[in-house]
């Protein structure tokens, strides 16, 4: 009973701390199936944008378990603005250093790594932007990734 209360208290504290993040505009994770992230599976994030003046930092976030087999993760990124104009990119996220030490934060066997994808991003049009993420590793079914997220925050 005491442990359940402590976990609830920690959860409440984390929720309260994240609510104080006034720079966050968008923050969402998509769960990856337990059997792995299929090379053909594309994650889609819908981001409503109303501010075309403020600059933003755009993060790609990864949650991996400690059994993930690689030090990095290659991701194919497509950003589509209202009207259908899109840019495509390939991005590498380091999840462990050269010695194999995990770079992310977390308890137990799950680590969260937040990496800035682009700094000082301006959105030229208001409306709904879509960000598409697809794993770009050599394996058809990539195991060890549990969640993938996008975070957009105002530049401080």
Compact description:
This protein has one helix at 2-19, and strands at residues 24-31, 37-38, 42-49, 56-65, 72-80, 86-94, 110-121, 127-135, 141-142, 145-154.
Query: How is the main sheet built?
Result: 4 strands, antiparallel
> Mean pLDDT across all residues, rounded?
89
Structural class by secondary-structure content: mainly beta
Number of helices: 1
- Write down the Rg: 17 Å
Instruction: Label the overall shape.
Output: globular
Number of strands: 10
- What share of the residues lie within helices? 10-25%
Order of helices and strands: HEEEEEEEEEE
Largest sheet, spatial ordering of strands? 1-10-4-7
Which stretches are poorly predicted, pLDDT < 50 over at least 5 residues? none
Strand content: over 45%
The end-to-end distance, rounded to whole angstroms, is 42 Å
Quaternary state reads: single chain
